[in-house]
Structures are given as structure tokens and as C-alpha cells.
Design goal:
Blueprint lengths: L5 H13 L10 H10 L4 E4 L2 E2 L2 E2 H10 L5 E6 L4 H9 L4 E4 L4 H12 L8 E4 L2 E4 L4 E4 L2 E3 L3 H11 L8 H8 L10 H13 L5 E4 L3 E4 L4
Parallel strand pairs: 1-4, 4-5
Antiparallel strand pairs: 2-3, 6-7, 7-8, 8-9, 10-11
Helix pairs in contact: 6-8
Length: 216
């Protein structure tokens, strides 16, 4: 999230975390540029009026660098020419303040669905995630997951059969304050396995990470 209004940042970060998203924050254009160079993000919420630069320039720089991260411009600038320019500069969506939080969440989900072929439902074997309703089930049995357990399972389900490292999970499911030397990923995966009650569904690949078993 690239936004200099601290009250808005605090409110959005809480709401997004409850919806299962990990959020890093930059309060000005230079720090946003630095974070985007260091980290691989799934989506950016980008204000236009920023200390040290503007959102249009930042968006243009990101696209010129070939970064495919999805971008939603979130701004009070509601003029038609600003909306047109934002989309022309490379934004995937443009949302005018003030806005309803459920609409922001719906737009975030819509962009992230592109990773799963445009559907809000992911299914791998008997596992099913409805990203719109935040509902998870296995063979018809509803599962109650914590936000981090949900985030780990969702990330693995978008990459069935692929080995995902602990570092990759930490980067995409936790925020920038997560300790890279912690065992939180291992603990979360262990808790997730117990809730799935399905041995071998999430496989450990020694020294490499975890893999969601593809149905045979």
C-alpha cells in the first residue's frame, strides 16, 4: 500500500489483514520505489498525491521495469482525465476516494483472480477455496482456518505440484516485519496439516519447501 494518510493506512491494513492479506506500507514515493525493487508483490494500492513524487510516475517506472504487479490507483482525484491517464500509465484499476471497503476488496479479488483463470473458486482434488466468501472445504467438510493458514493454503493451491520455499511463503503471506529466521511457516503448515486431517496432501520437500499434492 502506497499511501501517506496514516489513519487510512491503519484502517485498510486491519481490514485487509482480516481478509487474509499481508500488507507492506510505503508512505512516500521513494520508499515505495525501494520496496518494489526489493520485494515481489502480488498487488499495489497506489495513491497519486505522494511526498517525494507522484503515483503516475511511480506506476510508469514500475511498468518500464517490466514488473507485472497488479496496480489499483486509489485516490481522491476523480477527474475523467486523471482516470484515463492512470489507466494509460499502466494501472489495472482506478478507485476514487471515498470508497466502500467491500468494493476495494472486490476489486482486489477481481485482479488476483487472473492468477487462477478468472474464477473466485479454486479446486485441487477435494480441496476447495471460495476467495469471495473466504470459505475453505475438503471433500465437502468445512474448514475453519486462521488468516495465515488460509494464506498458505491459497498460495499453494495456485501452484499445485510446484515446490514453494518457506522464504516465498513468508514473502507472500506475511508482511515485511516477519522474521526470516522464524519457524512460523513450519508451525503454520503443521497446524494446517492437522486441520486438513489428510496425510501427505501438503508434502515437505527436504531443503526446498512445500508442495501441494496434485490429484492423480
Amino acid at each position: 500500500m502506497v499511501e501517506d494518510e496514516e489513519d487510512l493506512v491503519d484502517a485498510l491494513r486491519v481490514g485487509l489483514a482480516r481478509a487474509g492479506y499481508a500488507v507492506d506500507v510505503a508512505y512516500d514515493a521513494p520508499s515505495a520505489h525501494e520496496k518494489l525493487q526489493v520485494n515481489t508483490y502480488d498487488l499495489v494500492l497506489l495513491d497519486l498525491n505522494l511526498p517525494g513524487g507522484d503515483g503516475f510516475q511511480l506506476c510508469r517506472t514500475v511498468r518500464a521495469a517490466g514488473q507485472g504487479v497488479r496496480i489499483i490507483m486509489v485516490t481522491a482525484r476523480d477527474r475523467l482525465d486523471d482516470r484515463v491517464r492512470g489507466l494509460d500509465e499502466g494501472a489495472d484499476d482506478y478507485l476514487v476516494k471515498p470508497f466502500a471497503f467491500p468494493e476495494l476488496l472486490a476489486r482486489v479479488r477481481a485482479l488476483l483472480r487472473r492468477e487462477s483463470g478468472g474464477t473466485s473458486v479454486l479446486e485441487v482434488g477435494g480441496l476447495r477455496i471460495d476467495t469471495a466468501r473466504l470459505e475453505v472445504s475438503l471433500d465437502g467438510r468445512a474448514l475453519a482456518l486462521t488468516p495465515k493458514e488460509y494464506g498458505v493454503l491459497h498460495y499453494l493451491m495456485t501452484r499445485p505440484g510446484h515446490v514453494v520455499s518457506s522464504e516465498e511463503l513468508l514473502e507472500h503471506v506475511w508482511d515485511e516485519h516477519a522474521d526470516p529466521f522464524t519457524n512460523t511457516v513450519r508451525v503454520t503448515v503443521g497446524n494446517l496439516r492437522r486441520k486438513l486431517q489428510e496425510d501427505g496432501l501438503i508434502e515437505t520437500v527436504i531443503s526446498r519447501g512445500y508442495r501441494l499434492k496434485e490429484p492423480t
